[in-house]
Amino acid sequence: MNSSGAASVIGNDLYAAYNSNDKFEQGFCSGFIQAAKYAVADFPNMPAICKSQLAQVPLSQLEDVVQKELSSRPEQRHYSAFSIAFMSLAKGFGYIDSKSSIK
Predict the structure, then answer these.
(1) Residue 101: its pLDDT value, please?
(2) pLDDT value at residue 44
(3) Would 17 disulfide with which of 25, 59, 66, 100, CB 3.0-4.6 Å?
């Protein structure tokens, strides 16, 4: 894992951590996805219904959504892991449309 902070973590780092058997790496992934969840919920102009719906989604389901994105789109893993996580959660739960604008 890259030790220089969450801002410099790329998708490849998060993907490797997901596929690791190391408990620290797995815990890092869980915390990272939890942070992305809160960022999506706190995004300006996010409808209140979206915030309350997202609050009900189990962390394991959120992790599955991000892991699916990392697995199915390897060409994007060089981008910021936070950007990948944020967009996969926002799109996965229908909070933004295919043009990446808030509904």
Answers:
(1) 43
(2) 83
(3) 25
User: If one looks up domain 8-92 in CATH, what number appears?
Assistant: 1.10.890.40
CA 66/CA 71 separation, integer angstroms: 9
Give the Cβ contact number of residue 67 at 10 Å: 18
Instruction: Render pLDDT for 5-41 as a digit per residue (tens, 0 to 9).
Output: 556 899 999 999 999 999 999 999 999 999 999 888 8
Please give the angle made by the CA atoms of 91, 92 and 95, to the nearest 5 degrees: 50
Reference 55, options 38, 67, 43; nearest CA is: 38
DSSP state of 102: B
Q: What is the pLDDT of residue 69?
A: 93
| Alpha carbons 5 and 102: distance in angstroms, whole number | 28
Q: 42 has which bridge partners?
A: none
Nearest by Cα to 37 from 6, 14, 11, 59: 59
Structural domain boundaries of the chain? 8-92
* Token representation of residue 63: 């992790």
